[in-house]
Amino acid sequence: MRGEAHMEADALQERPGIAPMPGLFRGLSGRLLWLTVVFVMLAEILIFGPSVAGMRMNWLRDRLDTAAAAGIVIDGLQPSELPRNVQDDTLLATGTKVIALRKDGTSRLLAASDVPPQIDDQYDLTDVSLPVSIRDAMNTLLFGGGRVMRVFGPIGETDMIIELVMTDDALRKDMLRYSRMMFALSLVISLITAVMIFVAINRMMIRPIRHLTRNMQLFSEQPQDPERVFGGDGAKGELAVAGRHLASMQVELQRTLKQQKNLADLGLAVSKINHDMRNILASAQLMSDRLVDVEDPMVRSFAPKLLRTIDRAVGYTNEVLSYGQASEATPKRRRVRFSDLCQEVRDMLALDQGNGIEFLEQVAPELEVDADGEQLFRIIHNICRNAVQALATFHAQDPATVRRITITAQRVGSVVGIIIDDTGPGMPRKARENLFAAFRGAARSGGTGLGLAIARELVLAHGGTIALVEKPGPGTQFRIEIPDRPVALDDYRARA
Predict the structure, then answer these.
(1) How many of the other CB atoms lie within 10 Å of CB of 249?
(2) Between vectors from CA 345 to CA 342 and to CA 346, what angle results, nearest 5°?
(3) Are 240 and 232 in contact (CB under 8 A)?
(4) pTM, to two decimals
């Protein structure tokens, strides 16, 4: 298994355009290893000050205790002064040059040899705070050697004080030895800690992260392949959640890519069909022109509407062909009388042929909309056509229902608000969730959802808004707001 993983990683590194996976010690785990060593060493350095200060205090107290034991014995002897050879042995055993005992307010010199002319440092071990102890220890460690120091402190719980005079050479030598030992021990502890953390983190985090990264690299090469969806690697906790989200995103991406491919294929097919349809409509347009010369009054009344319908259909086919190459045409805005446009929508829907659907226009005759007339017609027609289809289905379920489409429009300042309301069954929940999504927002079986998607795109092209309005009663209501074009300052000045 490990060999396969290494072979897979090597194969990824050899592919062009794929960033190579860093080595185990050069990647995140390696940096974690060295950072652990550094941080443990920093922690040991912080501990080193109190530790070496404690070692120094213990060293000095040991000397005081040894000298105190000898001093009490000497003080009990009755010649008041020891022989020279005994003094030398006592000083050699305690590592000092002078031993003195203070008792009952008097000081007695117990032993002395080579008394130094001056004292460089004095230390009272009666009650030493930690900061002062650390300061004195660092001073001796860094700058000590060859200095004479006077050290004194109490003997046990008595009021006697033992006093020593000695050089700091032996003390500094022991402190240096202790420092080297502490450094070696700290280095060993940091390495052991770093290795344990490295192994644990590498097993719990780094390996799953590398697995996720490797899967993303493989998936990016062939995102359509279902076999390359992340299948999990046994990780737990947050990484397991990240793996599930990655798999979910990959599945959703594959679904989106599949839909885009289907849409691209559909667009190509529609363009081909539309190209031939345009030629057929052009022929029908030429033949319908001859209806104008027919003397029949019925033909004369319907001929203009038929000609406008065919002209509009030819225009739609041209727009579909251009849409397959780019996008919807930029609106050619002008002042459009909205009541006349509503009448064209009514004629196109053929609501006067006894289908039982009322079409009400609550629009002032003088209301004008600054918009592209053809695109605004498509917006209103698409929404009204959906309403007609919903009302026809509703009538089949309940013939006694009132079927009505109401268009209301009014201007407020520079914005025209249009409301299209129907008394149908309302929009299903699934259609509401994908309201303006092509091929997903269909409100009826067999629908494509393109009508609302096209209407929304055209409204946005005018800088307006379209929304489904919640209403207390049954039916569906859309509100459209289309603002006037902003007037350029130069045009305003020219007209003024």
Answers:
(1) 13
(2) 90
(3) yes
(4) 0.45
